[in-house]
């Protein structure tokens, strides 16, 4: 009788142990099956005669800047937008701190589609940086950005908060980054220019949003 009881106890322990192993294995399998949540950023698509540029936007980090940019697109205010400025290492002889960008927007300060200026979201606030392909807002004094934007060609740390490109040290408002079409950006940058102004200007034929709420 004692042997039978002992045998049954052993069987019970083995059964419980195997069940626990199967249960823990299921957790691992479930862990492998469940992939990490992929954050889908809204993107802006810009089509030019040189090709298409696609940039993802970061509303979670630069909400005011992204909302302003998206409004320009949603309200069709950028139908006349173009790339009109190229900054290269060779065409800024008077600048101690050099940068490389192309700049676009409505070009005219008095354009009827222009919206009021927005508050500057610095890179210190957003945690974004002016890296290769970064999409950022052009401005004069702080809190003066409207419709004009630029795309970095190469890393441009002097455009971040505390950078020395702008004397006020506030830097510029980065809010997105090119994920497709940097070859197009570079091609535009290499076009003929006079005093940094592209000749001729490069029309943004189509601009629209994808995955935007």
List keywords for this structure.
single chain; ten-stranded antiparallel beta sheet; 2 domains; Cyclophilin; alpha+beta; 4 helices; 213 residues
What can you tell me about this protein's structure?
With 213 residues, this protein is of the alpha+beta class. The protein folds into 2 domains: 1-35; 43-210, Cyclophilin-like (Cyclophilin, Beta Barrel). 26% of the residues lie in helices and 25% in strands. It has 4 helices and 10 strands, in the order αββαββαβββαβββ. It has helices spanning 2-33, 63-74, 123-126, 182-189, and strands spanning 43-48, 51-57, 82-87, 101-105, 134-137, 149-152, 173-180, 193-194, 197-203, 206-210. The longest helix has 32 residues, at 2-33. It is globular, with a radius of gyration of 27 Å.
């Amino acid at each position: 009788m004692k042997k039978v009881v002992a045998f049954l106890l052993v069987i019970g322990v083995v059964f419980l142990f195997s069940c626990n192993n199967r249960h823990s294995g299921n957790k691992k399998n479930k862990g492998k099956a469940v992939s990490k949540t992929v954050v889908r950023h809204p993107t802006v698509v810009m089509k030019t005669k040189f090709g298409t540029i696609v940039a993802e936007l970061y509303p979670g980090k630069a909400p005011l800047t992204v909302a302003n940019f998206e409004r320009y697109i949603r309200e069709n205010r950028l139908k006349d937008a173009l790339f009109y400025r190229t900054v290269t290492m060779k065409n800024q002889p008077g600048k101690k701190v050099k940068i490389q960008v192309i700049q676009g927007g409505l070009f005219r300060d008095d354009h009827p589609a222009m919206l009021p200026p927005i508050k500057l979201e610095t890179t210190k606030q957003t945690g974004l940086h002016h890296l290769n392909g970064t999409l950022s807002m052009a401005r004069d004094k702080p809190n003066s950005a409207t419709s004009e934007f630029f795309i970095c060609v190469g890393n441009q740390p002097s455009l971040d908060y505390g950078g020395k490109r702008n004397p006020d040290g506030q830097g510029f408002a980065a809010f997105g980054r090119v994920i497709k079409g940097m070859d197009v950006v570079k091609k535009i940058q290499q076009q003929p220019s006079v005093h940094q102004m592209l000749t001729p200007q490069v029309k943004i034929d189509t601009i629209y949003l994808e995955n935007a709420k």
